[in-house]
Amino acid sequence: MLAPRHSRRDFLRVGSAAGTAAALPDLWLSRFAWAESPNERLNVAAIGVGGRGTGIGRKAASLGNMVACADVHRKNAEDFAKPYEGRCEVFTDYRKVLDRQDVDAVTIGTPDHWHVKIAIEAMKAGKDVYCEKPLTLTIAESKLICEAVQKTGKVFQVGTQQRSEFDSMFLKAVAMARSGRLGKKLRAISSVGQATAGGPFPISDPPEFLDWDFWLGQAPKVPFCENRIGWNFRWWFEYSGGQVTDWGVHHTDIALWALGGEETGPIQVTPVNFEFPLGRELMLETLLGKRPWQELPVSYNVAKSFDCDMLLPNGNEIKLLSGKNELIIEGELGKIRVNRGSLTGAPIEDLSEADKKWLDDEVRKLYRGKEPGSHMRNFFECIKDRSLPVSDVFTHTKSVNACHMANISMLLNRTIKWDPDKYEFPGDEDANALTQRPQREAYRIVL
Fold first, then answer.
1. Are 205 and 224 contacting, i.e. CB atoms less than 8 angstroms apart?
2. Are the C-beta atoms of residues 294 and 220 closer than 8 Å to each other?
3. What is the pLDDT confidence band of residue 9, given thresholds at 50, 70 and 90?
4. Where are the beta strands (DSSP E) in 246-311?
5. pTM
6. Range of lowest pLDDT (31-35, 136-140, 207-211, 307-311)
């Protein structure tokens, strides 16, 4: 058993005490002078600034003062810092960013296997955190990050921006589903596209501007391969869960929210169809520790295609598959379809003007009283009033765990059952073994 589950209610009751003025140092309080004075802005730093990390770092910089950045790929850090003309100090070791007492908040845009370690250390150093999705590499890490937020009372926003942006189309889909207008028994199809397959790839010496051992972190020690870094880290189980978690967590997060499973996640996952480029058995044996990672071909190894059925405690169902990018939600009274480009379906298209006003009001309620539109702005607003961001760790871990469960069910090629209260697969030794990974001692995650 890992631990009892944590909820948003627990955080608001217990964790918020850590965020009260009485619990905060004078230095931190002085930083919040910007709440009264528009000339005072939070100092922010960006950790992991390749690709998406640059995107979220730039957004944070538009709302605060970007004073530092860090990336083990030094060229990434130097390129990120250039627009700030010497005001953004460059590091290769993120711990030097956390040592700076003037940094109020950090963005984390590293590969997935670094998210939780850096986030926990940042919160322990007194920083509020915006971290990219998928937040965790394993179910065990989900437990740790929830405990860390609970203990520190820090504001933590996960980068599932569909909860804030895209003209509130996803929020409207959630509100419609939760209202009963689609019916009482709901089914969602979370369709997110295939992963990339490829390899074997050549190995080589790492470039001089990259600290390869540091980049690997908790993951197995292997020779450098250019296809392991950058965008392509997603296609290796060592660093990610593949498309199942990378894109899967976006639509599955919305599906769980819409279908009333955001506090529990699924209780059962069944694999329907899948393809692992290196074979299911080989990946299962490796993940269970029966084969060394170094013996695997230097090839992408996550599921290329996938199709899994999830059952929620309330009887609603979600299908996660590698099809056309869209989320479909349907019940006995109607069906809607949403992606980042459109929200369609008769229940939406037939809304009256009064209905549309009702829907806008419901969206604001879902958004906890704030105005949607910018995920990063929501983070900064929540830092200001010490409230729970729209994409909090407690609901996000249910969403990412659902995706981890999909991978586990496919690797085992059978139905798995989850107990959200005990935080385990009851009586299932192999499934429970797959909830965590060995970590290299120098990079072990410590709460």
1. yes
2. yes
3. low
4. 268-275, 305-311
5. 0.93
6. 31-35
